[in-house]
Design brief:
The chain is of the alpha/beta class. It has 9 helices and 8 strands. α1 (about 5-30) packs across α2 and α6 (about 150-160) packs parallel to α7 (about 180-200). It is globular, with a radius of gyration of 18 Å. The mean pLDDT is about 95. Bound molecules: pyridoxal-5'-phosphate. Pyridoxal-5'-phosphate (PLP) binds near residues 44, 67, 89 and 234.
């Protein structure tokens, strides 16, 4: 299957940028005094075309995240041969749960108990398990999804108790601010909530160690606060077209 020349050029660039990103993450891990390899990279593929994503997967970027189920179901079939792992990282409407579960091995953006219950019911029908994270809105910005920090423990504990769902941790999108202290404080909030959750030893919470936080612009701050997964789009794929 031939690809248009501009896709080949973009693919080469993506592979190069992925290498640079890996170095950036490794440096941040080192500077935070953390174990090498303790932070994994998820590539956020929204708006990106299949040939470009394929190049990233072949270069080892095998963990992918999509915001929109529509994009996930459009792209995933064309990447089956390179077998990436897909996570849902955007708002998931209940009528899209079935479509999402056809491709996703995890949903990082669980923002209500209702959504978690729906996922658990669907998993029961499919006779499968699903990794989930609870998304927390640490910045309080009204444009961001996620449960408020003060409700996060209650929601996470309830989600963890549901059958078929395995709560692996918490996810957040950092504050949109140039004030690094503020951004970092938000990541520290998520870490504190994760620590409280683990300390609660409530049923289903004992494996909830993950902190999915940090993106192209703020991943060093997130890694300094204990991120275990950073979700990166533009630093690897370039700027997205505005939509
Ligand atoms: C787009 C997106 C990212 C990646 O953002 P960049 O700034 O492009 O790195 C991470 N997480 C979520 C939920 C996103 O929607």
């Amino acid at each position: 299957m031939s690809t248009p020349p501009q896709d080949d050029a973009v693919a080469t660039l993506v592979v190069h940028r992925l290498g640079e990103l890996r170095e950036r993450v490794a440096r941040a891990v080192r500077e935070a005094g953390r174990e090498p390899g303790s932070v994994r990279v998820l590539l956020a593929t929204k708006t990106m075309a299949v040939p470009v994503i394929r190049a990233a997967v072949l270069a080892g970027g095998t963990l992918l995240g999509e915001n929109r189920v529509q994009e996930l179901t459009a792209k995933a079939p064309g990447l089956v041969d390179v077998a990436p792992t897909w996570h849902v990282i955007g708002p998931l409407q209940s009528n899209k749960v079935n479509a999402a579960l056809a491709w996703a091995s995890a949903v990082q953006s669980v923002d209500s108990l209702g959504l978690a219950e729906r996922l658990a019911r669907r998993c029961a029908v499919l006779d499968r398990d699903l990794d989930v994270m609870v998304q927390v809105n640490v910045s309080g910005e009204s444009t961001k999804n996620g449960v408020p920090p003060e409700e996060a423990l209650a929601v996470a504990t309830a989600v963890a108790a549901l059958p078929r769902l395995r709560l692996t941790g918490l996810m957040t999108i950092g504050a949109r601010s140039s004030d690094q202290t503020l951004v970092r404080a938000g990541f520290a909030t998520l870490r504190g909530l994760r620590d409280e959750l683990l300390a609660s030893a409530a049923p289903g919470t004992t494996e909830a160690r993950e902190l999915s936080m940090g993106m192209s612009g703020d991943l060093e701050l997130a890694i300094a606060e204990g991120a275990t997964t950073v979700r990166v789009g533009s630093a690897v794929f370039g700027e997205r077209p505005t939509r």
